[in-house]
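As agreed, record passed on underneath.
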Amino acid sequence: WGAFFSGALGWVVSSEKFMQPLVEKNIINSLKVRASYGETGLDSSAGRFGYLTSYSLNNQAYVIKNKYVPGFSEGSLPSPDLTWYTTRQTDIGFDFGFFGSALTFSADYYVKKTNGMLITMPIPSYVGETKPIGNVGDMKNSGLEFELGYKWNVSDARFHAKANVTYLHNELTNLGNDTGFIDLDTFQGIFGGGTRGSNGQPFPYFYGYKTAGVFQNMAEVQAYVNKDGEMIMPNAKPGDVRFVDVDGDGAISPDDRTNIGNGTPKWTFGFNLNAEWKGFDLNLQFGGTIGNQIFNAMRYYTYFPNDITNKDRALMNYWTPNNTNTDIPRLTATDVNDNDRFSDMYVENGTYFRLRNAQLGYTLPASLTQRIKLQKVRFYVSGQNLFTISSYSGMDPEVGQSSSLSRGIDYGIYPQNISFTGGINVTF
């Protein structure tokens, strides 16, 4: 990283004369208003000499006069206009302390603009060379951050709670190409959908077809018509997926693909609770997200295509004339309706709430430990990921990502374990 410029300005309002009556009454102990601005640049993701063509030995060879002669070939394509990307961030916030700082509150509003983002250019694989890094456009992130803390006592028990929440609005403001969009992750070779970046949209988002349930009978297929009375999906059968004619042209085509969700949470939150009482101590840590979606690629793979692999047990609830209360299409070896398109059929709510860590400890009284020449002895037990509240059907709603281009796509991750540990801490 290289810092081009940074600066901060603060005003401790609570030190002003007009605030003293509130300070003396212990109502407001501290109030600070602050603002900051900074510019940074980054080039590490592009590697060294990414603007030049690299050459590799022995990728190509020739036979000259019956002798094997090694040759050089291009190992990567050049990106002659490659530069650092720059990020400019403005932050405005304030910090409060009330009632002897027993209650604290802080809030921030920030705007972060990134110009000349560096990503691998999605050129066709048939080019045969390593894809170059390029500056592809501009992005804006803006949002709010809040933190609230409170300390209190109940008799000889002490408590401290702290909560934080962050709201994020993400938008690709200018991709910098002629079309205004770029197709990114093509869902591991399954074309017709994946993730896309478009001007005015979150980066990236899921790009595919919208669905409206499953056809229950032939009458529904025949009734799904355009303004001219023609069937929109003439190849569909009862039990097939009903795809939405988004562009209204009276047929289902690649032009009907649209934004069907994104993996970036709108809200991210956490909550900590600490308690102490007569040598006992308790710590609880919670966290989660709100407003993000997950594309369950594992669900897709276990439904389609028609190959000999292990299947999700939910597939047992597939549509039949006697089992119509389901959103899983019929089983068929000839899928003329293309039920396996990249669609919102596999997009699920990614909101979750998780107890990340819980620890209970007990510290022996000092009068006892001093007799055995020890300063402190503490016993503890702890657990991680003890419970998760989520409607996601996959193994873990906290989906990782192989890159920023596949954010929110669950290709199959090893779920976070529920684990328990115990131990003793001794201070001599």
